[in-house]
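Changelog-adjacent note: as of this version, every example in the card shows the full chain rather than a window. The one below runs 88 residues end to end.
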Amino acid sequence: MCESKIAEEKGVADQFRHSIEAAKEEMVATSAALKVTFDRSLLTASGTNLTETLSNMESSLENLRATAAKAKAQLADDQAKMLAMHKR
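Full-length structure tokens:
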């Protein structure tokens, strides 16, 4: 019973580590695509536990995601305008 619980906890911890790495990769890729800088210490910062670390990463990503969504919307709008102008 203890061994299965330990294995389960290790699996959960591994999932958190994977999610943290994915968040870091998203932060780097999104900031590069937007050509914006961010506090690179976030890539090495950690919380007191994996849950806190992931929460901190997700909080930091919220602004980048919002900025990316605005940029995508602007690009789609510009594309539609260009297509409309081309059809004239």
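Structural remarks: Residues 2-87 form one domain.
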